[in-house]
Amino acid sequence: MNTLTLEKVFLDLQVDSLSTRVGNTPLFPLRRVTLNLPAAVSIYAKAEWFNPGGSIKDRAALNIIQSAIASGELTTDKRLLDSTSGNTGIAYATFGAAMGIPVTLALPENASKERIAILNALGVELVLTDAKKGAEGAMKVVQELLDKNPERYFYANQFDNPANWMAHYHSTGPEIYAQTAGTITHFVAGLGTSGTMMGTGRYLHEKNPRIKLIAGLPTRANHGLEGLKHMDSSRHPLIYDANLPDRYVEVESKAAHEMVRHLACEEGLFVGLSSGAAAVAALRVAESLDEGVVVTIFPDAGYKYLSHETLWK
User: Which domain, by its residues, includes 109?
Assistant: First the structure.
């Protein structure tokens, strides 16, 4: 595929394709898990599994790809390369398959079986890395691949690429503000690459500086909540600004697991582990309020976590 062909595919995608289905996800009210809150306090969750690749990472991945094609960094003679815990990789693979872009990913070997199966189905060149070394180990493997053959790859670098947070500044933030008619008082999001919080938070603060930004994060390094990052024990993404959130809320893995089950059985929302953690953090914020509109992000659905035996017991 030559450059003109790739550009044609890129333009076709803008007309009517998977890319036009990214974003504009619904905002659902939480009703039963919030029964003990004051009547003037409400929690809404943005259902990001409605994106074509099944998660919020479609937003960042698509913007990274589009920006790289536009700048000439991603050409037909290169493979997209990055490390992932799963969802961003699935997003890369989805759009890569649609656009004829080959994808190479480094993924910790303890990622859920479902994520690995999906990536294989989408034709990814997959490098499984040491589970004990987590995301940092996967990033190191990517750097080694890049050092050995720099001409072969476009390094998407989701943790440091500004196109990550800018995707949320231009889509997630405006959507939430519009969907709440500007009544949002608190925004809660988990931290992974931090792109969702950085982009959405900046937009919301620009619209209304009184909106509080709350970041949820695991209580410890070995937390098992795929997609979330324990910042104190990890390399900080270059896109991360620790001063942007107004507050941090730590979430225990057990509490997140329990919330996933509550959301499924009581709200009919079959979500993933990071969504459970987001709901726990949002509830803790809401419990301290007399009135307010709390919005959080549910990054993905629960089908990629069915192999987590302890989660569903």
Answer: 57-155
